[in-house]
Structures are given as C-alpha cells and as structure tokens.
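testing teh design pipeline on a random one, pls ignore if ur not involved
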C-alpha cells in the first residue's frame, strides 16, 4: 500500500539547490531504519548503504533539490528582487505564495505600470519581485537577507490515482527509492544516493559516483509526457508504468542496460513503458562520464506540468517504479559490457 504521508513529507520539504539540508533530514528519517549506514558527503549528497555479499555495487540515484528563487536586492520599499535557482518559468512563478527557509512567507508578482486587477504585462525574471509585507528596506532586511532562497508554497493534492504539488520533480522519485528500500533484498551492496544541485548543472551526482564506483548505476528522475491536449507527441503517458530510459538530451543508455531492465520488468510482471525524452538532462550523464566511465540506466516517472507549482504524477507509475527497483536489486547477475 502506498505510503501517502511519506510521499507528502518528502515532496513538501524545503530544499532548493544548494540548500538541501531540510529535505535531507526528512529523507534520512525514512531511510535510516532500512539500511546499514547513512551519511552525507562534502557536497551534501545523502548516501544510504545496504551491505551485500556479492562484491558488486549497485547504485540508485535520485536528486532531491528543487528549483526556486534567490534574493539579489531589497529596495527602499521592502520589495525583494530575485533571480532564479534552476529552470524557473517567470510566468509560472508570478502571483504565487512562497516561503523561505526561516519560515518567512511572501507572494510574488512582477513590475507593471497599472495598479488594477488583470494587470497587463509579461513576467520575466528581471521584473519579478517578492512581497513579504514589509514597508521599508530595514523591515524587510530584518526578516530576509541577500542570498536567502524561497520556494513555491504549493498545496499537495490527491487527484484519484494522481498527486499534484510543486517539487514532484524529483521528490516523487526520492520517495520511490525509499519505498523500494522497505522490502529490498539483494546480494549486492546497494547505495541509494539522494543527490544535490541537479537543477543547476548536475553537480552532486558525479562526486558521489566517483567515490562509490558502482558496477551499475540506475538514475531515477521524472520525464515528459504525451497525453494532454495539443502537447508534443511523445509515447510516455501517466498510468502506463515505470518508464525505462532509452535516451534524453544528455545521455544515451547502453542497450545492455535497458534491455536488462525490460527483462526484469517482464519477469516480475511490472508494467513499464519506454522513455525517449526530447529535451532536458539528468544525473545519468554525470555518472556515465565519471572516472573511466560507469555503466548507467534510468527509470523515470512521467510528470505533467514540469517546473510548475502543479506538477502532477501517477501513483501507479510510482508503485511500478519502486517494484522495478526492488526486482532489479534482487537479480543475481547485473548487466555488464
């Protein structure tokens, strides 16, 4: 049975790129009882290690950071000027409630020459600001400092088989890794890595892979979809199962890995689909290029409305992804070149 409270706690935790400490604490609380050791590296990656006996190392990696806004200036009236952390769409982030790490809340809007409702104009990062209710620079600076980061304060919605919230990218995959660890049995050393700073240049994954040196790394991330009105045609659909990655704009998966994952899915009667993503990149590419090269694969969860406050995924895909991770870990033989 899906642990909805666990998913909600992980998705709702504060953790923009470079400030992942709070989401790290939440994930650690769930994984610590399930593994032999848990630690963080110098960059802040959270690493959970479940010991095996085969001498092989299997690594699952899922980034835990989210996109957000960073304060770049405070004007004389107390408005906070901001820049983006990661791929923020200004149109999606205008007129939204936001919260800072210290609990201060505010709302976003953008510069406009009119003061009535239905303001004309177009939001851009350069004219976006945060209003925290301050009436002067001094009042605002007492609550928020330059360099503080904010994330969208979004409601977690249960929509039948689907769930919607900000930061589903990539917390839904972090939750799937936690879910898989609950009943995971493996002869191999299993490393579950919850990586940092993926949204600002895939920075944490390579460092973790360099030290662990896995025989196989499976990356968990969300992918695009092709099942809403007038969207670009793609095969991935919500509710059709775990999406086994073939490629995205940053990586091409070796056939020996994705066919192995497909065989595991078929053998265990796990619903799956293929993931060919037209754009975007994942931690997979950073791991693949580490040291002399590492064998990589990917399992994705299709996500609607990515990088918005209403990212929407399907719980059946979540369950299939967790099941596929569990089944892959149970395999005695890992793929190899």
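output:
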């Amino acid at each position: 049975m899906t642990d909805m409270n666990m998913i909600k706690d992980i998705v709702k935790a504060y953790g923009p790129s470079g400030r992942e400490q709070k989401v790290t604490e939440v994930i650690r609380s769930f994984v610590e009882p399930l593994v032999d050791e848990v630690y963080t590296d110098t960059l802040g990656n959270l690493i959970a290690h479940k010991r095996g006996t085969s001498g092989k190392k299997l690594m699952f990696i899922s980034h835990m950071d989210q996109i957000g806004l960073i304060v770049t200036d405070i004007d004389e009236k107390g408005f906070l000027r901001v820049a983006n952390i990661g791929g923020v769409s200004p149109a999606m982030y205008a007129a939204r409630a936001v919260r800072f790490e210290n609990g201060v809340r505010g709302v976003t809007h953008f510069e406009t020459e009119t003061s009535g409702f239905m303001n004309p104009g177009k939001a851009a990062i350069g004219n976006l600001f945060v209003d925290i209710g301050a009436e002067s620079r001094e009042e605002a600076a007492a609550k928020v400092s330059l360099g503080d980061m904010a994330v969208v304060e979004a409601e977690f919605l249960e929509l039948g088989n689907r769930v919607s919230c900000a930061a589903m990218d990539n917390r839904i995959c972090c939750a799937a890794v936690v879910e898989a660890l609950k009943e995971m049995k493996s002869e191999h050393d299993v490393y579950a890595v919850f990586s940092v700073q993926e949204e600002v240049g895939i920075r944490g994954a390579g460092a973790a892979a360099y030290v662990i040196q896995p025989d196989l790394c499976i990356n968990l991330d969300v992918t695009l979809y092709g099942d809403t009105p007038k969207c670009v045609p793609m095969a991935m659909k919500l509710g059709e199962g775990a999406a086994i990655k073939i490629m995205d704009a940053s990586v091409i998966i070796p056939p020996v890995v994705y066919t192995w994952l497909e065989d595991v899915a078929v053998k265990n009667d796990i619903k799956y689909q293929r993931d060919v993503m037209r754009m975007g990149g994942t931690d997979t590419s950073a791991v693949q290029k580490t040291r002399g090269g590492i064998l990589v694969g990917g399992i994705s969860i299709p996500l609607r409305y990515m990088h918005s406050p209403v990212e929407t995924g399907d719980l059946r895909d979540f369950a299939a992804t967790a099941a596929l991770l569990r089944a892959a870990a149970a395999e005695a033989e890992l793929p190899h070149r």
